[in-house]
From TrEMBL:
One of its GO terms (molecular function) is heme binding. Residues 1-23 form the signal peptide. The keyword Chloroplast does not apply. This is C-type cytochrome.
Length: 222
């Protein structure tokens, strides 16, 4: 890579990554993302039913860690297996696509309607990028308090995750997907807190208490 390209690359990396930056190739990451787009959407926006999670804007190290877990068969994910098989997915490719997806920003709302310069195609493309999590039923205020007490220290003050520590966003992720992941943690198919793998935090809540947390998180991006 020439010097100018390297400079550009550094400009596009989130601040926290610069110190650990190996040479990632965002263009290659964008190309690889075409493989992912069939399920996760062209912009990594996921699908609204929560079958496929949103990936864009997640911490780079979170995305790459999950990719390694899938590839090494440590986190079950049948639909993705063939895509992450080692022969097709060397470490460098994981690094590239993770860095690419981490820097894709998605708006939470459509820009205001501009009657004079209305361009239907442009509007359609804009709408595809918008992710706004549908409201979940439940006591939002109770959920907010519980979130702040039990989750914010790691997932961030309003649930947007922690890029430095690689903790994923919960706001901006589909509620149904999050609910399924809690079950995977409880069934020990995933490890929630690698620093204390036997942690029972999520098991301590009733279904209703968790629902209140999702209800709160679904309002953060409104
Ligand atoms: C055939 C469909 C499919 C394709 C193609 C696919 N994925 Fe996935 N991916 C899934 C499904 C389904 C899940 C959720 C699995 C679960 O429920 O635990 C997932 C989960 C993930 C997660 C975990 C996200 C989280 O918040 O837990 C990451 C990261 C991911 N995929 C990255 C990728 C990347 C990068 C590509 C392209 C190289 C890709 N996926 C291609 C189906 C797909
Ligand atoms: C000690 C830090 C910590 C606390 C506190 C914490 N989390 Fe997490 N959480 C993590 C980490 C780290 C991950 C990613 C782990 C992995 O690789 O699967 C995660 C992942 C998740 C995921 C999966 C997200 C995804 O996209 O796959 C859910 C759901 C979740 N946490 C819910 C919660 C809830 C709800 C609370 C509060 C009741 C909470 N967490 C508190 C550290 C924490």
């Amino acid at each position: 890579m020439n010097k100018a390209a390297m400079k550009l690359l550094i400009l596009f990396l989130p601040l926290g990554m610069i110190s650990t930056a190996q040479a990632v190739d965002l263009e290659n990451g964008e190309e690889i993302n075409e493989l992912c787009a069939g399920c996760h959407g062209e912009y990594g926006e996921g699908d609204k039913n929560g079958d496929y999670p949103r990936l864009s804007g997640q911490p780079e190290s979170f995305i790459s860690k999950q990719m390694h877990l899938f590839r090494d068969r440590k986190r079950p994910n049948l639909p993705m297996l063939e895509y992450v098989d080692e022969r097709q997915f060397p470490d460098q490719e994981i690094a590239d696509v993770s860095a690419y997806l981490a820097q894709v920003e998605l708006p939470t709302k459509l820009p205001p309607f501009d009657e004079e310069n209305f361009d239907p195609l442009k509007r359609l493309l804009e709408a595809k990028r918008v992710v706004n999590i549908p409201r979940m039923p439940g006591d939002i205020e109770a959920g907010r308090k519980r979130y702040k007490r039990e989750c914010r220290s790691c997932h961030g003050s309003e649930g947007w995750g922690d890029h430095e520590k690689g903790v994923p966003m919960l706001a901006g992720q589909y509620s149904v997907y999050l609910q399924r992941q809690v079950k995977k943690y409880l069934d020990k198919h995933r490890i929630h807190d690698p620093e204390s793998p036997d942690d029972e935090l999520l098991a301590a809540f009733t279904a209703q208490e968790l629902d209140e947390i999702w209800a709160y998180l679904s309002t953060v991006d409104d």
